[in-house]
């Protein structure tokens, strides 16, 4: 009996690169089986998971139809676009595609700092019911915000004038968490703010952000209770 090959996504919706991959799948009706791997519970350290993602990080995919196991969010986004001919998300026009790739590589040592320098320390502080001190982190991320603002002042989206690409998805899924938790005062940047409003209008935004929003709700209510 023929069994339909499945496409598996491993990760957690609160993880930025997992959210970008899951959201691309939701928007493009790519069926996937989601396996929650919670780093806080060390589920990414199990022997079973390391067979899928040798670097032990989330997200990772297992595409049974290609016998492929793959990690690195941006590589997964690109793979999904190429496999499913998602030309709007990864344009075929070479110069535009080159700009998308430029962003996807730049992302790791720039936009990703939002998570490493700001978001994670803030989460740790909230979990301990303390106000975060983000002075050092802000020094690292401020130049990144200015660069993004410069790009988004000249264009509606990071790499094109009229439609988002996987570069926008990858980038947005770092900035969204700052907005939800009110970190970095993003309102100072009009280009970034207008772009975020555009991204919020995309299909399945609510579904992709449900867990991030509920984490915010839980942590803020704990903070408020501890102040009483
Ligand atoms: N470069 C990787 C980074 C993946 C990554 O850092 N994932 C985090 C969650 S967002 C993780 O698995 N953290 C667990 C750990 O660091 O032990 C990507 O873009 O996919």
From TrEMBL:
<protein>
    <recommendedName>
        <fullName>Glutathione transferase</fullName>
    </recommendedName>
</protein>
<dbReference type="GO" id="GO:0006749">
    <property type="term" value="P:glutathione metabolic process"/>
</dbReference>
<dbReference type="InterPro" id="IPR040079">
    <property type="entry name" value="Glutathione_S-Trfase"/>
</dbReference>
<dbReference type="Pfam" id="PF13417">
    <property type="entry name" value="GST_N_3"/>
</dbReference>
<dbReference type="InterPro" id="IPR010987">
    <property type="entry name" value="Glutathione-S-Trfase_C-like"/>
</dbReference>
<dbReference type="InterPro" id="IPR036249">
    <property type="entry name" value="Thioredoxin-like_sf"/>
</dbReference>
<feature type="domain" description="GST N-terminal">
    <location>
        <begin position="5"/>
        <end position="88"/>
    </location>
</feature>
<dbReference type="InterPro" id="IPR051369">
    <property type="entry name" value="GST_Theta"/>
</dbReference>
<dbReference type="InterPro" id="IPR036282">
    <property type="entry name" value="Glutathione-S-Trfase_C_sf"/>
</dbReference>
<keyword id="KW-0963">Cytoplasm</keyword>
<dbReference type="InterPro" id="IPR004046">
    <property type="entry name" value="GST_C"/>
</dbReference>
<feature type="domain" description="GST C-terminal">
    <location>
        <begin position="93"/>
        <end position="228"/>
    </location>
</feature>
<dbReference type="GO" id="GO:0004364">
    <property type="term" value="F:glutathione transferase activity"/>
</dbReference>
<dbReference type="GO" id="GO:0005737">
    <property type="term" value="C:cytoplasm"/>
</dbReference>
<dbReference type="Pfam" id="PF00043">
    <property type="entry name" value="GST_C"/>
</dbReference>
<dbReference type="InterPro" id="IPR004045">
    <property type="entry name" value="Glutathione_S-Trfase_N"/>
</dbReference>
